[in-house]
Write a structure and sequence with these properties.
- The complex is a heterodimer.
- Chain A is α/β, with parallel strands linked by helices.
- Chain A folds into 2 domains: 102 residues, Rhodanese-like domain (Oxidized Rhodanese, domain 1, 3-Layer(aba) Sandwich); 58 residues.
- Chain A is 43% helix and 8% strand.
- In chain A, helix 3 packs across helix 8.
- The longest helix of chain A is centred in the first third of the chain and has 20 residues.
- The radius of gyration of chain A is 25 Å and the shape is elongated.
- Chain B is globular.
- The interface between A and B is medium-sized, with 28 and 39 residues.
């Protein structure tokens, strides 16, 4: 039970907590204002080591694996985002990107149509102190080409294995993997692909994925 | 100069550990001062007769929360650099149940068991040894546990994100909940004593009347 002396101390503390608590909703965000500083040498080093970007297949694998803390940010316009976006991507236009306080443990992947705007956004976020930031190297075009419509172009063993891996990811995202090359079928050379049914992949090019056409409709800047 | 000092590079590992030690000792001193080194006091929490644990811990929560919010707002603390542990729903739910069971059985939680051990209580020493053994066993068996340990990940969730409310609104709600909780705790603590006092006076009156009857 509290003594009288304790009660005398408790009341002002409770009042102080109440006042600070009631004022909190009117106090704004506790995250500090965004003032960036660029460590040019560090950024150049990161770029030189190609640690600034991810490929479309790497990003697809991260999304499929539900990588903890992953946030995929689409920096294009709202119309472009509405027309097509990478699954789980959040719309985050360039001009509002720098107002967001990202947590240190989040992994951010930025993308635009071609990659230029995403690369610029990458510089902004790195300047603001975010460390786990990457951009999709070839933008949405790379995503459509490598994830939604992967094509077998290299018939070596390594190439076939890479295509099989891409095909798994492609189907996960509803894509259509294609083996366009006419390959002489044999037991050893048969392309082992994960299949939806029992049908082998057609040597005849399949129709383009509908999202590609939709994307082309909204293509304006090419960046 | 702004916080967090270690994250922003003002502290090295050695200084960071030293500061952690000082803060840890101060925390232990506060726990002991509040009487939380006693298993009887902690066990009383579960019988709703002494809610000191609830009041001390919730006071610490709102003090830290208000400090973090307003220091962040004043620009002294860079909140984006404060580490938020990740949420793994199922393993943490199970862990919470195991923790609660251990708390109820032993009468002490990890922090208070250290305080109890340092003040010479044998139950505290036994719990600290048990805790270390558990940590060691978990560490050694981690490869087998890893799948479960990392299941149902939800990322580094905070209340404002989970509730989709502005940070300040959540702060306000938690403070109001705490103050309401403190008032309810005081009421719960006072109730058994009032009932006890009523029973006591009733039994004395009965004894007196019985004694009167005998004399008559």
């Amino acid at each position: 039970m509290s003594t009288g002396r304790d009660n005398r101390m408790l009341r002002p503390l409770a009042v102080a907590a109440l006042v600070l608590g009631i004022l909190a909703p009117f106090g704004g965000s506790p995250y500090r204002a965004r003032h960036g500083a660029i460590d040019v040498a560090a950024l150049a080093h990161t770029v030189a080591r190609e640690e600034d970007h991810v490929t479309a297949l790497e990003l697809a694998q991260w999304i499929k694996d539900r990588r903890p803390g992953l946030r995929v940010l689409d920096v294009r316009s709202a119309e472009e985002y509405a027309a097509f976006h990478i699954p789980q991507a959040e719309h985050m236009p360039l001009d509002s990107l720098t107002a967001i306080a990202f947590r240190a443990d989040e992994t951010l992947v930025l993308y635009s149509e071609g990659g230029t705007h995403a690369a610029q956004a990458w510089v902004f976020l790195r300047a603001l102190g975010n460390r786990n930031v990457y951009f999709l190297r070839g933008g949405l075009y790379e995503w459509l080409e490598q994830v939604m419509n992967p094509t077998l172009a290299d018939t070596s063993a390594g190439g076939r294995a890479a295509f099989a891996h891409a095909a798994v990811l492609s189907r996960y995202f509803g894509g259509v993997p294609r083996s366009d090359l006419h390959i002489r079928p044999s037991d050893d050379d048969a392309i082992r692909l994960p299949k939806r049914g029992d049908s082998t992949q057609s040597a005849v090019p399949l129709p383009k994925h509908p999202v590609a056409d939709r994307l082309l409709q909204v293509r304006r800047r090419g960046c | 100069m702004s916080a967090p000092f270690f994250e922003l590079g003002y502290f090295g590992d050695g200084t960071g550990l030293l500061v952690a030690l000082v803060i840890g000792v101060a925390f232990g001193w506060c726990l002991e001062s509040a009487g939380l080194g006693s298993a009887r006091k902690l066990a009383a929490q579960f019988y709703l007769t002494d809610l000191t644990v609830f009041k001390v811990m919730f006071s610490a929560v709102i003090t830290a929360m208000l400090g973090v919010f307003w220091l962040g707002r004043l620009g002294v603390l860079d909140l984006s650099r404060v580490y938020v542990p990740e949420t793994y729903l199922l393993p943490q739910l199970i862990g919470g149940l195991v923790f609660g069971a251990g708390f109820a059985i032993g009468g002490l939680c990890p922090g208070t068991s250290c305080v109890a051990a340092v003040t010479g209580r044998l139950d505290g020493v036994a719990l600290v040894l048990g805790m270390w053994s558990g940590v060691l066993a978990t560490g050694l068996g981690f490869p087998a546990l890893q799948g479960f340990y990392e299941s149902t990940p939800r990322g580094a969730l905070t209340l404002p994100q989970a509730l989709h409310l502005p940070y300040g609104v959540v702060v306000s709600l938690v403070v109001l909940a705490a103050l309401g909780g403190f008032r309810a705790a005081e009421w719960l603590e006072a109730r058994p004593r009032a009932a006890l006092a009523a029973n006591h006076s009733e039994s004395r009156a009965t004894s007196r009347s019985l004694a009167g009857g005998v004399q008559a």
